[in-house]
Design a protein that fits this description.
Length: 329
Amino acid sequence: MRPNVAVIGAGSWGTTLASICSRHGPTAIWAREDEVVEDINERHANNLYLSGFRLPAALRATRSLQEAVGRCEVVVMAVPSPYFRAVLGQAAPYVQRGVPIVSVAKGFEPSTLLRMTEVIAEVIPESTRAVLSGPNLAREIMAGYAAGAVVACTDADVAKRLQGVFNRGLYRVYITQDIVGVEAAGALKNVIAIAAGIADGVGVGDNTRALVISRGLAELTRLGVAMGGQPRTFAGLAGLGDLLVTCISPLSRNRYVGEQLGKGRKLDEIVAEMHTVAEGVHTCRVILELAERYGVPMPICREIYRVVHEGSSALEAYRGLVRHPPGVE
C-alpha cells in the first residue's frame, strides 16, 4: 500500500511520522514556520524541532494546507490539542470526502473536554476517525530504536489499512477498536508524568516515584473506563507503555516540566524556554472537570493541578498525597 499521506504539524513527532510514511509512499508535511519548510525541502532536516537527523529526500514540506491535503488519502493530525480544531478547520475545505483522519495529539480540547476524534467528528463529520498512540519518543525512533504503537479505529478494515501505513521495520504498530481508551490513556498519562517529574526534582526517591506511577495508572484507568474505554487498553502500549516512558525518560516534555517544578522553578519560565507543548499542563485542568463529571476520585491529578495552576509547591503536593487514606488496591 502506497497512499498519499499528509502530516499536519512539523514538530518532533509529526516530522518523525512523516519520515516513516514517506518511506511507504508520497508524503507531505505542513509546517507553520517558513524556516522549517525551507529546512526540510532544501536540507532534509528539521533543526528547529528535531535537530541531528537527516530526513528522507522524498519528504516535502509546505505552508499551504491545500497543497498538503488536497490529494492525500490519509491525514495525520500532529497538532497539540489547544490548536487542533483551528488548524483542522482551516484544512477541512481541502480534505477529500471519506479520507481517514488520524489524530496523534495526546490531550483533550480545553474548552469542550472533547477527545480529538470527537473534535474531528464535529469539524469533518463525514470523515473516518482514528488515533495512533503509544510509547513513542521521536528522537529514539529516528535513531532506529525499536518501538511500538497502537492505531485505533472503530472500522476494523480502516485500522488494518492504517497499520500498513505506519508499520515499518522496528516501528511495530498494533490495531484495536478502542478509540476512547487509547485517546484517554494518551492524554491522562501526561499529568502523571508531571507528578513523576516532580518526584525527580524534589528527590523523594525511587520507591515514591514507583508509588506515584502505579497509583497514577490506577487513576487514569478508573477515569478512562468510566469514559467508555476498555480496561485492557490501559495495561497495553497506549496505557502502561506510554505512561512508563513518559514518566521516566529524560526526553519526556511532561516529566521535564515536573522535574523543573520540583526544583522550585516557575511554570511560566519553564514553558517559555520550550519549543514544544507539554500537553499535561493543559490536561490537568480538564481531568478534574472530567473526574467530577464521571464521579471518579483523582487525588494525584488534583495535587498536580494545585501545583500547576494554583501556586502550590511541589513539596506541598507530595505531603498532600499522603493525606489521602489508602484503600483497596
